Amino acid sequence: MSQDAPQQKIALVTGAGSGVGRAVALGLSEAGYAVVLAGRRPDALQDTADRRPGATFLCVPTDVTDPASVQALFDRVKDVFGRLDVLFNNAGTGARPVPMYELSYEEWRKVVDTNLTGPFLCTQAAMRLMKDQSPRGGRIINNGSISATAPRPYSAPYTSTKHAVTGLTKSTSLDGRAYDIACGQIDIGNAETEMTQRMKSGVPQADLTLKAEPVMDAKHVADAVVYMAGLPLEANVQFMTVMATKMPFVGRG
What we know:
This protein is α/β, with parallel strands linked by helices. Helices cover 39% and strands 19% of the residues. The chain has a single domain, classed as Rossmann fold (3-Layer(aba) Sandwich), CATH 3.40.50.720. It has helices at 19-30, 42-50, 67-81, 105-132, 156-176, 218-230, and strands spanning 10-14, 34-39, 57-61, 86-89, 138-143, 181-189, 191-192, 203-204, 210-211, 216-217, 239-243. A 7-stranded parallel β-sheet has the order 3-2-1-4-5-6-11, sandwiched between helices. Strands 7-10 form a two-stranded parallel sheet. It has a two-stranded antiparallel ribbon with strand order 8-9. The longest helix has 28 residues, at 105-132.
């Protein structure tokens, strides 16, 4: 490769073994990125990688709630690629759809650790790498949710953490400016994944009735993230909402 040849960009996707994470990882790969696949299940990560034979993937089993595991992930990225251009903080979970007074502390803590502490730990490690690499800088994209501002009933842990992710996005944008690190957020409504299959049979509405809701292909989310990732660092999509057109969101409640 000549010295003038463009360097392949490196992206890292957490929760890359299924759903939105898998769709985004494949989308970034199709766009020419080398993609680091992070998640708890090694077999699921390998399944993602196997869907694009010949593409550049690095599977790194990771628990984003564990600081040591996150540090090992970013050490591996640095050792193999020497840099990181894009982080997609996607790994997330929810709790049982029950009134909050029925939730256990353990259920609450699991969602907070995964949905909020995980993105913080990954963002922190990414910023440390991005600010010192050459060329300096990079982009962090957080997976938020429209539930942050228009929650469903029985979603206190999920809604609370996704609301907090918006604060993390804004703080990261400010703290990263001095180092050419941009941060944006994508808020997703009803992407069709393993986690949203119940949408088709009925989910709680504001009046506590159950109603089936429209969904959209997760590829549309991937396309949006690829667009956000591909902008030059002088431009940034701060917030983007991608949703199933006919879902009850605008005017919900």
